[in-house]
Amino acid sequence: MEIWSKIIEKLRDHKRVILLLVCSHKGSSPGKQGFKMLVCEDGTLYGSIGGGRTEFQMVEKAKDLLQKDDFKPFLVNQVHREDAEDSSGMVCAGEQLVLFYPIGSENLSTIEDIVLQKKGVLKITKDEFVFDEKAILKDDFIFEKYEEWYYAENVNRKSKIFLIGGGHVGLATSQLFSMLDFEITVFENRENINTFENNSFADNKLLVDYNNITDFIPEGNNTYIVILTHGHQVDKLVLSKLFIKDYKYIGLLGSKSKVRKMFNAFAKEGIDKEELAKVDAPVGLDIGSKTPAEIAVSIAAKIIALQNKGSLISIF
Domain 159-309 belongs to what topology? Predict the structure, then answer.
């Protein structure tokens, strides 16, 4: 939200502003879809579209535009390969499509709504800059380019992590994810659990019946679930409820032998192997974790990699 507040500040001061926005990216691009940067005629820069040489080039281009008359929004494709004819000069083997969008007083009320409402969908075309607080996208971003281009994003698109189990690992994982851009919900089905009651890092703490766990977890591409309950049978119960739903990530804490026994039991019950393959088990990156804090690090590493790379396949 801070970049929008900065833009409001400049517009109220009657300054000309250009918004740089990464509409799409491929490969190892330094800028990812949704990255934004403010370039103002008074020299103010805020935000980032990836940093380094690629950002410097775009900022200089924006500064030149601010010295000229009004211009229509346009796209610049940056190719980060030395052998490319239009190479940006970087060698990270990716591409990013950057939108140059002039922001003026006519956009002020829309941006004020973004800051005030906090959640909704921002839609941008060459002729339109609108915010719909009642809308939501299944995926956080949409970019389409045919004869015309269209960009939309969920505003304040915090990913959600649901930790099923409020024990020591749940507490440590909550603490670590509180430093990341996640909304944290912790579930427990037992009363008077000290680590659950004293968890000050979670945004939400719910005492629930695990038979109804799916009533509390929304489906979607920004929903991450980690099963950390106190027992094998409880884990199995929870996982059996989650198979039929659509989530970005499901992780299960446990030893390899525990996971193997559980999955063999599911197979005998007729659960398809493709359903079992959706589950990251044992959860997290294999770094030989022993303590709750180390387990939390392994979980966070795997989920961040999934966020940034888009697939569990060949993350490491």
Answer: Rossmann fold (3.40.50)
